[in-house]
Design goal:
By secondary structure, the protein is α+β, with helices and mostly antiparallel strands. The protein contains 14 helices and twelve strands.
Length: about 425
Amino acid sequence: MTFALVDCNNFYASCEKLFRPDLKDTPVLVLSNNDGCIVARSREAKALGFPMGAPIFKFRDLVRDHGVVTFSSNYALYADISSRVMRTLGELAPVCEVYSIDEAFLDLSGVSACIDLVEFGQQIRQTISQWIGITVCVGIAPTKTLAKLANHAAKRYPATGGVVDLSDRYRQRRLLTLTPVSEVWGIGSKLAARLGALGITTALELAEANPALLRKRLSVVVERTVNELNGVSCIELEDAPPPKKQIICSRSFGERITCFQNMRGAVCEYASRAAEKLRREKQRASVITVFIQTGKFSKGEPYYSNAATGKLPFPSDDTRDFIELARVLLERIWRDGYRYLKAGVMLCDFSPPGVCQRHLFEEDEGRRGSVELMETLDKLNRGTGGVVWFAGQGIQQPWGMKRGRLSPAYTTNWNKLPLAH
């Protein structure tokens, strides 16, 4: 078995630069919801020392002094560019597993019989760059864990040309010697500390440890990681993502909510978004949970957090069912006198369409014409940002996220296509 991990470099920042050639060598930062914290950095911004996850207000002087350009998170743009990258990878390799929005594992078994693996990795880089404009790095190895390490090395060492092949055992051991155990896929900071207490501080020391003993002292995950570092594949490639078990739609508000009407509009909005995601998964849900909370660290303000769960008579993917139940649940947990910071909706207890337990005293399993109505609604709203919505979501949304630095929807909205001047 031969795996390749393809990872987009500085993905969010790279997407922002795609249609802004004037920012080619400019440091760029992408901010979180409500433009609060740094969630992505370009290569130039990393060189200036901007830390990941830090509040942007702490670095105003550094932003001003170095001409750093900041953007609000443009999720529609990133998702669209990601889908283009993944479709392209699917055409270049026999099997492609989308691991995250900017990463994918490829099955390269048998490819080496036709072409050198490093050369093939360079072809992947060139194709993605030419077709889409995104730079990627490629790590190649006999296991997923080693492919992850190879990808890190491809990013860290420019001399590799963005491609590292760890098929050779000597090269594997050499890289493992240079890699701290905390950088191994699946080994977090807490697990790294426990391994450090056992005298294991590098990836090579982990690879040479007794897997059965580590399983007994730590977990089967660590045992599997040891085998993976030794070239024994324990994590299979998934050509189709597993079905989701729950869908959560939640956001912090741009402005604190103090009145029930605004909170009801926010909850209805989140219920609608969750239902759209549910239909894309081709699933139906029976249970919905609504939760609200104030700021836990707001000085001088009382803290309040609560949630309520309800069950539908039948599994549904109709937005109206979830909005109606969500409003009832919100009324149970709403308390006047608080300044709410966040709310959300969670759907769970999924089942495929047409598979459900019938109710003894109910004849109708759903609304008449529900499927056709939801299909029409999704078709109208696809790529438009939502031109049709339910009245409960409200026309004005004063609680909406602050996105003052949002870039245009270059690839998903006809009215925002870049124009030549």
